[in-house]
Amino acid sequence: MDRWNAVASALRESSEFSRPKIDAKRACNRIMLLIDAHRNYDKASAQASGVDEDVNEKILLLDDLLAAYDDAKNADQRRADESRELANHSEAMGSLIRAEAMESMGKRKRKNDEDEGAKVELDFQRERMQKEMEERRIELEERQMEPQLMAEQLRQQQDSLALLMRMMIERN
Fold first, then answer.
1. What residues contact residue 153 under an 8 Å CB cut-off, 6+ apart?
2. Where is the sequence biased in composition, kind Basic and acidic residues (predicted)?
């Protein structure tokens, strides 16, 4: 909602915008109405094959606005999917670690002559797990950086949306 507050504030500050009482909710609702109407227009124009269409600047701006909005929604969905995937992966890793711990505990109970072979296997598994944990830590750090990058991209998209809105206001 902070982004919509920024859009509403930019619109209020524009001398060419005639609605000084616009707030974030109204700006959001108006954009959604414009996007829905443009989607309907796109569907209707897709069905009207062979008909020459008038493409004016408003239609082009709405096309850009629709593309930016869809990109932002897809980015949100992708982030949610990645979070879900990371949670599932963490749960699976926990089960794997527990199973290996139970296996190694069983190995410790074996006789002394078997302990030497078990120790080598345990050292190998421990080293492998440490490498995997390091890889997971690196992946986690990269994933933690992604929301910052996504937020920056979203901010840029919303800035472009605000610019498009100002351009639409100037043209009308």
1. 75
2. 75-88
